[in-house]
Design a protein that fits this description.
Helix content of chain A: 25-40%
Order of helices and strands of chain A: EEEHEEEHHHEHEHEEH
CATH topology of the largest domain in chain B: MetI-like fold
Number of domains of chain B: 2
Number of helices of chain A: 7
Shape of chain A: globular
Structural class of chain B: mainly alpha
CATH class of the largest domain in chain B: Mainly Alpha
Structural class of chain A: alpha/beta
Number of strands of chain B: 0
Low-confidence stretches of chain B: 1-18, 284-288
Number of strands of chain A: 10
Largest interface: A-B, 27 and 23 residues
Low-confidence stretches of chain A: none
Strand content of chain B: under 5%
Mean pLDDT of chain A: 88
Oligomer: heterodimer
Helix content of chain B: over 70%
Order of helices and strands of chain B: HHHHHHHHHHHH
Strand order of the largest sheet of chain A: 6-7-8-3-9-10
Largest sheet of chain A: 6 strands, mixed
CATH architecture of the largest domain in chain B: Orthogonal Bundle
């Protein structure tokens, strides 16, 4: 008998940070709960986004999925196997400027393959294929400083894809881009996702971005971070860019916005009249 | 005919104005030469001015041969010492001790500096000691080192090492400590080991700091070799300066000083060149 495991599963993930500055006189401050009891299942090739107010722990959750930090409780399973450290089955796309400045675009993409001791020739072929996939042909030997923000994030994406991970973890990868570049990158990401068929967990604070890209949007509530609602996005694919101006799309955005509204005002300290 | 082809690009080294060149073109060539080396040319102005002032002061202001010598006299003396082979001998003695002390200081400084940066426990134990030693005028220990190691090259190597090692060590430590956390985490996400993170992320990001440390160390090393040879030696530029000074052979004394000064300029320029070669990413902003 074989059990079919979901691609990615979390069981009761909680995370609390020890608070700095706990003084002896007042006794130890209670740990700061960032995430409580997050259980989530993601299917193979599914595109899932996590949205939430800032400080809701969505980045922390993503880092736990990658094994960069350990949860205080609960476990992460990939294909039924527990995650304890970063592994080659997951690729992480960082928010900003995590490209190594002393490496060219090509050398950045090659990094993961070097760590895995892949043969040089094969590694270079893979890197070249991915650089072309993200549309950076001709910029292989440019250093990050010579590339625009959008191009740097393309390298960032190619770098994560180079190790051919099953799961792509993306932490607000387009947050630092201007609006036009961001929309181009969203279309590019969908194209690449279609070609590579990765399972994607995508953290963003842009609701329309989440709706446009995702099969499901997970709405996080803050303090401590927890799943408030899971919103399946039943919009047909391929989704043309104009879909953002259709009524069903707007309805999803409105719905998620209303879920987040209280949270956003709570965390920004603004009173709703 | 070929000589009349105009230079198309600024990047091609301009030709020197020759007889076949019309005056206007010669001016244009000179202007291009100036613009392509603007910084070097401007730096040269002050040097030329200083040498002219030296000559004037030596000839007309301080005329006593026991106190000062004009630049031209020093150059003549330089030629004499060079032709006799004496100067080369002093340079060889000084620069070999300097190179050895500097190389050992670089190896030890980078190794211990790295260890302090990656191991907080080691850092906490020896940081105060390192900072105290860096602030101490270690040059004051030179007489003791000469007594301990003799007046041969060993004591000079020891003095140079002692003066050079701390700036290299401290810069290595702060370079590694200031490495961007995001860059380290990106490497971790690819399952890089601790050794790989050190070699592929920490060391490259510390490189500009390390080279800056080497530059500071080189300046201190030049002082060290001079002082070491001043206190007790049988040869070397410091010895030449000290003996010439004592015998009022002022031109020979200035030859020693001049060679040390040029060595300082050349070695710092060489380290800057090295930095551009191994850390080219730092200069893209300026080049673009």
């Amino acid at each position: 008998m074989t059990t079919v495991h979901p691609k990615l599963e979390t069981r009761g993930i909680s995370k609390a940070f020890i608070r700095a500055g706990a003084t002896a006189g007042q006794g130890a401050a209670p740990p700061l709960a960032v995430l409580t009891n997050i259980s989530l299942t993601v299917r193979t090739s599914e595109f899932v986004s996590i949205v939430g107010a800032s400080g809701c722990g969505k980045t922390t959750f993503l880092r736990i999925l990658d094994g960069l930090i350990e949860p205080s409780a609960g476990e992460v399973l990939i294909d039924g196997g527990a995650v304890t450290a970063p592994g080659r089955d997951r690729g992480f796309v960082f928010q900003k400027d995590s490209l190594w400045p002393w490496r060219t675009a090509r050398e950045n993409v090659l990094f993961g393959l070097e760590i895995q001791r892949r043969p040089r020739k094969e590694a270079h072929a893979t890197a070249q294929k991915l650089i072309e996939l993200v549309g950076l042909k001709g910029f292989e030997d440019h250093y990050p400083h010579q590339l625009s923000g959008g191009m740097r994030q393309r390298v960032n994406l190619a770098r994560a894809l180079a190790i051919d991970p099953d799961v792509l973890l993306m932490d607000e990868p387009f947050a630092s881009l201007d609006a036009q570049t961001r929309e181009v990158m969203q279309l590019e990401l969908v194209r690449i996702w279609n070609e590579a068929r990765k399972t994607v967990v995508f953290v963003t604070h842009q609701i329309d971005e989440a709706v446009f890209l995702s099969d499901r949007v997970i709405v996080f509530a803050a303090r401590p971070g927890r799943i408030k609602e899971v919103v399946p996005i039943d919009l047909p694919r391929p989704r043309p860019f104009g879909i953002k101006r259709t009524a069903p799309f707007a309805a999803y955005v409105d719905h998620i916005w209303s879920l987040l509204e209280d949270e956003v005002f709570k965390s920004s300290g603004v009173k709703v009249a | 005919m070929a000589a009349d082809v105009p230079v198309q690009s600024n990047r091609v080294a301009p030709r020197i104005a020759g007889p076949g060149m019309r005056p206007r073109r010669a001016v244009a060539t000179a202007r291009r030469l100036f613009q392509s080396h603007r910084r070097a040319v401007r730096g040269l102005y002050s040097v030329v001015l200083a040498l002219v002032a030296w000559e004037v002061v030596g000839r007309y202001v301080v005329t006593s041969k026991l106190m000062f010598a004009p630049f031209s006299r020093v150059i003549v003396e330089f030629g004499r010492l060079w032709m006799s082979g004496e100067l080369e001998h002093h340079m060889l003695v000084s620069f070999s001790a300097l190179a050895m002390g500097f190389a050992i200081a670089a190896a030890v400084g980078i190794a211990i500096g790295s260890l302090i940066a990656v191991s907080p426990a080691v850092g906490e134990h020896i940081d105060p000691l390192i900072n105290a030693l860096y602030a101490t005028p270690l040059i004051a220990l030179s007489p003791i080192l000469i007594m301990a190691f003799g007046i041969g090259p060993a004591s000079k190597v020891a003095i140079v090492f002692l003066l050079c090692v701390f700036p290299i060590l401290i810069n290595t430590t702060s370079g590694i400590r200031s490495a961007d956390d995001g860059l380290v985490e990106a490497a971790r996400s690819f399952s890089a080991s601790r050794g790989e993170i050190f070699r592929l992320v920490l060391l490259p990001s510390a490189l500009p700091f390390i080279v800056a440390g080497l530059r500071i160390a080189m300046g201190r090393g030049l002082v060290g070799i001079f002082i070491g040879e001043l206190f007790g030696a049988r040869a070397g530029l410091g010895y030449l300066i000290s003996i010439s000074g004592q015998t009022f052979d002022i031109p020979a004394m200035f030859v020693g000083v001049l060679v040390l000064a040029v060595a300082g300029v050349v070695s710092v320029a060489a380290l800057e060149y090295l930095e551009r070669r191994i850390a080219p990413w730092r200069h893209f902003d300026l080049k673009a």
